[in-house]
Write a structure and sequence with these properties.
arginine biosynthesis; 396 residues; identical protein binding; Class-III_PLP-dep_AT; N2-acetyl-L-ornithine:2-oxoglutarate 5-aminotransferase activity; seven-stranded mixed beta sheet
């Protein structure tokens, strides 16, 4: 075991002392050669698992050809990835970024530009309680995360919060200054709370009736995570603007802002970024999209998601826990008790990585190509921890 200079990094979160040095598929290894089964995957980032050959090969090949010509010029991978995203979605144009927060910041700016040009300077965006859109000042302001409320004041003005799945709460906030409604189809950080398809359909009708833009933050739900390439495809409607991050890079920093021609209103100088549309990152994104967009791949995600959901429901029944929420391979188990951090810590000791977005909730975000045997391994670990801890009443 190597001694590491932990103090050289800013202390921004509690981390175990393990230092990961290698990954393959659903597994990670630390510098003590201990293996971990990963059901977090960088918070739904590694959609093809750790270090898949298709991404490694794309990165290597592109690195030998061109690192970056600067965003003042076109490069081939960004053009190809942009074309592929447009061809596989309801959108007409793409702006590449480096993180989900940056993509969401771009969506906010695009909506406000639209308000300036087409709605008499309207700038307010309705977002939702419990929502999470990133850690820039504007995206924190758009988020409905309680822990953000006292931080980094003053916040960016112009965001009103509605209640998820309550269309009347949205309608009551609309006024002459409103330009858009922004939400995650499934609120991940607050504990995997889905917007119903019916609510999203009603939201589309409401925004169209008032001439408002509809923005879907698909940072976590996009790129096949819910069994469709993009979550909006489940609903029969399409937003005006969509943001992607996490899975689109498969492990490298890449994000995207997509918009219809109607909503695409940036003018020269409005938006940019030194590394935005970087050829190496876009080459990785193209490799990811080519894999994830295959019909058999998405069918497998749906089937595997149903299996994981079923197994979690059995665990819940055995231990007297709550329901299972989510879609595809973005799922949460309601523990009913504030025991999630303890379970995560015990699972880590046993070589399984889990996530607790809330004290009473476990979130599961495995690789989209996770194997059935790996699901069984994780379930056995979780079941054993619950049994040994005696943390919940057995009912079966």
């Amino acid at each position: 075991m190597t001694t590491h200079p932990y103090d050289a990094l800013m202390d921004i979160t509690a981390r175990p002392k393990a230092v990961f040095v290698r990954g393959a598929g659903s597994y990670l290894w630390d510098d003590g050669r201990k293996r971990y089964l990963d059901f977090v995957q960088g918070w739904a980032v590694n959609c093809l698992g750790h270090s898949p050959s298709v991404i490694a090969d794309a990165l290597s090949a592109q690195a030998r050809r061109l690192l970056t010509p600067s965003p003042a010029f076109y490069n081939e991978p960004s053009l190809k990835l942009g074309e592929a995203l447009v061809a596989n979605s309801a959108f007409d144009q793409v702006f590449f970024a480096n993180s989900g927060a940056e993509a969401n910041e771009g969506a906010i700016k695009l909506a406000r530009k639209y308000g300036t040009l087409h709605k008499g300077g309207a700038f307010e965006i309705i977002s939702f309680e419990g929502g999470f859109h990133g850690r820039t000042l504007a995206t924190m302001s758009a988020s409905g995360k309680k822990a953000f409320e006292p931080l980094f004041e003053p916040k960016v003005a112009g965001f009103k919060k509605a209640k998820l799945n309550d269309i009347a709460s949205v309608e009551s906030l609309i006024n002459d200054n409103t330009v858009a409604v922004m939400l995650e189809p499934i609120q991940g950080e607050s504990g995997v709370w889905p917007a119903t398809d019916q609510f999203l359909q009603a939201l589309r009708a409401l925004t169209q009736a008032h001439g408002l833009l509809l923005i879907f933050d698909e940072i976590q739900t996009g790129m096949g995570r819910t069994g469709k390439l993009f979550h909006y495809e489940h609903t029969g409607i399409a937003p005006d603007i969509m943001t992607l991050g996490k899975g689109i890079g498969g492990g490298v920093p890449l994000a995207a802002l997509l918009a219809t021609e109607h909503a695409s209103c940036f003018e020269h100088g409005d938006q940019g970024g030194t590394f935005n549309g970087n050829p190496i990152m876009c080459a990785a994104g193209l490799a990811v999209l080519e894999e994830v967009s295959k019909p058999d791949f998405l069918k497998q995600v749906t089937e595997t998601g149903l299996l994981l959901e079923s197994e979690l429901q059995k665990v819940s029944a055995r231990h007297g826990l709550g329901g299972v929420r989510g879609r595809g391979l973005l799922l949460a188990l309601d523990l009913k008790l504030p025991i999630a951090p303890g379970i995560v810590a015990q699972a880590f000791e046993e070589g399984v990585l889990l996530n607790a977005p809330q004290l009473d909730t476990l979130r599961f975000m495995p690789a989209l190509n996770v194997a059935k045997a790996e699901i069984a391994e994780m379930i056995d670990c979780l079941d054993g921890i619950l049994t040994k801890a005696g943390a919940a009443r057995r009912v079966a």
